[in-house]
């Protein structure tokens, strides 16, 4: 199977760039490359840019949530917090409707707090008209703190980015450091992830660009209003906590294997991993999306969400991500000790489906 050629066919249509201008794909399996990670880079960093390399940096979106959850679990191991701690312990004079919500409810998406990134909310309207505007975590939380909970906490699964903005606030309150500092010290430096950066506002202003790294330009193909629009100057401040990292596929592969590969416990102890994998399985009552509340069930079904990580009945652990102009996924398959990561610089669902098809074909050969 010529993986490089198949990936090139996704990026180039009739010899021309289409949608995403570049992608990076890393896979690691005992049955490939003597068990060492193999990275494939395809296309250009922008429409008229240089070729994608191992040092090309992609926004990873909600895959950042797993990093935040790791920090929270490390704080628990240090007895600085408990997953059972309610919001009121940290902010007794703020967020009264959220006082009884526990940290675990934030991380496993069962709090019932509305999602500030949904269309029509105050912040989403403000952001869509001012894509380069810096928006603070306080501004996000204050804009939605008086909205009623969508359901009784703990009874439904509902994917809300607001949960992770509030979790970020708790981490910063407890440590008296920024989340950026904690992720850098606790994860990035420990794993030597030299191509992973926390972005507070504008990527181009916060990463020193040289011959060794370059920020990919993103292209929006998700919103019809912004079809094909460049997103390199969009602020990541609105993704504060839920989706604020940029990285490469090699670094993300190292990260996810550090969590779930059996011989690798560099970040979390086996007990903490067990807590991370304490899944709430949910019934998909509406459809296959995660934008509506879905009932938590006691009996085992296919899909579930733990503390910043997805699972399924095949013991596959993953998190995907999307920002304006970027798509990502990192996954670990326990059965075969296989991991893979893909990153693309366009929110183009058609190309992503083609990429997933190639990955599934490759994985089938490893069984």
Key structural traits:
single chain; 367 residues; alpha+beta; Beta-lactamase; five-stranded antiparallel beta sheet; four-stranded mixed beta sheet; 12 helices; 31% helix; 18% strand; hydrolase activity
Structural overview:
The chain has 367 residues and is α+β, with helices and mostly antiparallel strands. The chain has one domain: Beta-lactamase (3-Layer(aba) Sandwich), CATH 3.40.710. 31% of the residues lie in helices and 18% in strands. The chain has twelve helices and 18 strands. It has helices at 3-11, 64-77, 87-90, 103-107, 122-129, 137-144, 162-175, 179-188, 203-206, 249-260, 270-276, 349-365; strands spanning 12-13, 16-17, 22-28, 38-43, 56-59, 156-157, 197-198, 214-215, 219-220, 229-230, 245-247, 280-281, 294-295, 304-305, 310-311, 316-323, 326-333, 338-344. The strands form six sheets. A five-stranded antiparallel beta sheet has the order 4-3-18-17-16, with helices on both faces. It has a four-stranded mixed beta sheet with strand order 7-11-5-8. A hairpin with a 4-residue loop joins strand 14 and strand 15. The longest helix is centred in the last third of the chain and has 17 residues, at 349-365.
């Amino acid at each position: 199977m010529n993986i490089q050629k198949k990936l090139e066919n996704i990026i180039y249509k009739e010899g021309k760039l289409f949608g995403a201008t570049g992608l990076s794909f890393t896979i690691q399996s005992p049955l490939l490359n003597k068990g060492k990670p193999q990275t494939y880079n395809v296309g250009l960093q922008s429409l008229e840019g240089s070729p994608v390399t191992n040092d090309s940096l992609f926004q990873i979106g909600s895959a950042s949530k797993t990093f935040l959850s790791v920090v929270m679990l490390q704080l628990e191991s240090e007895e600085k917090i408990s997953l059972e701690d309610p919001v009121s312990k940290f902010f007794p004079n703020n967020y009264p409707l959220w006082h009884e919500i526990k940290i675990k409810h934030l991380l496993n998406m069962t709090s019932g707090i509305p999602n500030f990134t949904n269309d029509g909310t105050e912040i989403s309207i403000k952001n869509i008209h001012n894509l380069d505007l810096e928006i603070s975590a306080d501004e996000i939380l204050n804009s939605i703190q008086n909205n009623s909970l969508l359901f009784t906490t703990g009874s439904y699964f509902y994917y809300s980015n607001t949960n992770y903005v509030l979790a970020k606030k708790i981490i910063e309150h407890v440590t008296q450091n920024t989340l950026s500092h904690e992720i850098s010290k606790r994860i990035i430096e420990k794993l030597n992830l030299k191509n992973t950066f926390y972005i507070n506002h504008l990527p181009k202003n916060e990463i020193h660009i040289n011959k060794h790294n370059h920020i990919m330009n993103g292209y929006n193909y998700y919103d019809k209003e912004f079809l094909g629009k460049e997103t390199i100057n969009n602020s990541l401040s609105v993704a504060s906590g839920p989706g604020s990292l940029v990285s490469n596929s090699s670094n993300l592969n190292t990260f996810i294997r550090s969590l779930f590969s059996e011989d690798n416990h560099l970040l979390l102890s086996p007990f903490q991993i067990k807590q991370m994998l304490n899944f709430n399985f949910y019934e998909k009552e509406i459809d296959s999306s995660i934008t509506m509340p879905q009932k938590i069930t006691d009996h085992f079904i296919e899909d579930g969400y733990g503390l910043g990580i997805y699972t399924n009945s095949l013991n596959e652990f993953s998190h995907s991500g999307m920002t304006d102009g970027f798509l990502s996924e990192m996954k670990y398959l326990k059965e075969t000790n296989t991991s893979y990561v893909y990153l693309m610089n366009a929110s183009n669902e058609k190309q992503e489906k083609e990429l997933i098809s190639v990955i599934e074909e490759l994985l089938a050969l490893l069984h």
